Amino acid sequence: MPDSSANSTPLLALLARVRAGDDAALNELIRQVGERLETLTRRMLRDYPRVRRWAQTDDVLQNALIRLCRALTQVKPDGVRAFYALATVQIRRELLDLARHYSGPENPAAHHESWTADPDCGPPDHSDPADDPAALADWCEFHQQAAALPDDDREVFGLIFYQGLSQDDAAEVLGVSVRTVQRRWQAAMLRLHHVRRGQAPGA
Predict the structure, then answer these.
(1) Which string of b and e fits 45-76 if b means at least 16 CB within 10 Å?
(2) pTM for the whole thing?
(3) Please, which residues have CB within 8 angstroms of residue 69's CB and are 6 or more apart in sequence?
(4) Residue 140: in which H helix or E strand, if any?
(5) Is a pLDDT exceeding 50 seen at residue 108?
(6) CB distance 11 to 77 below 8 Å
(7) Torsion angles phi and psi, residue 149, rounded to 5
(8) How far apart are CA 160 and CA 145, in angstroms?
(9) Residue 190, in any domain of the structure
(10) What is the mean pLDDT of the chain?
(11) Within a domain: residue 182?
(12) In this predicted model, what pLDDT tens digit does every residue of 12-52 receive, in sequence order?
């Protein structure tokens, strides 16, 4: 499993090179992010067979990284904290677009039976409530509510849930105490508790 540490010093150096227009640094930055996000993307899709059958982990990851790469050509983060904030927004947008694309009666999967060849996934189980369109709408609502959290809580939630950082690493990135991160994480989870009866997608 990829190292989930914030790795602030090497990341700062890469960001400085990206700001200077170094394409090799941009490629290395995307590669490092991709190693961490592959595991997180797989986890997020695991609970949603309706999306998973039609969008494999590699495709979702690639689309999220393309979004991030495009964003980095327009926005030059001035530090690790700003970079993670930018990356989180791109990941959340990709997940929301997937949820919207594969929900509703007009979605391309509505009238087909298909399941992915991903070795982690077997044939779809239609008895699974997560395969219900309502569950997919629930997932979409979860990510929308995550985007609407108060700034401090949203930033902590993004680092831990979307970026896969530990609470210690999140505290390092934000320059606050671990206790502060714990408090903000708990506040975010309490606000999101009602969306899936206390269970976050992919948790």
Answers:
(1) bebbbbbbbbbbbeebbebbbebbeeebeeee
(2) 0.69
(3) 26, 30
(4) helix 133-147
(5) no
(6) no
(7) -60, 155
(8) 16
(9) no
(10) 75
(11) no
(12) 888 888 888 888 988 888 887 787 777 777 776 776 666 66
Amino acid letter, residue 57: T
Q: What is the DSSP letter of 110?
A: T
Two structure tokens written together for 148: 């609407």
Residues 39/99, Cβ–Cβ less than 8 Å: no
Where in the sequence is the domain holding 52, given as residue range(s)? Answer: 8-106+128-149
Query: Tokens for 75?
Result: 């926005």
**Measured between alpha carbons, how far is 100 from 151 in angstroms, rounded to an integer?**
25
Q: Which residues contact 134 (CB under 8 A, 6 or more apart)?
A: none
Main-chain dihedrals φ then ψ at residue 111, nearest 5 degrees: -120, 25
- Split into its structural domains, the chain has a count of 1
d(CA 25, CA 156): 26
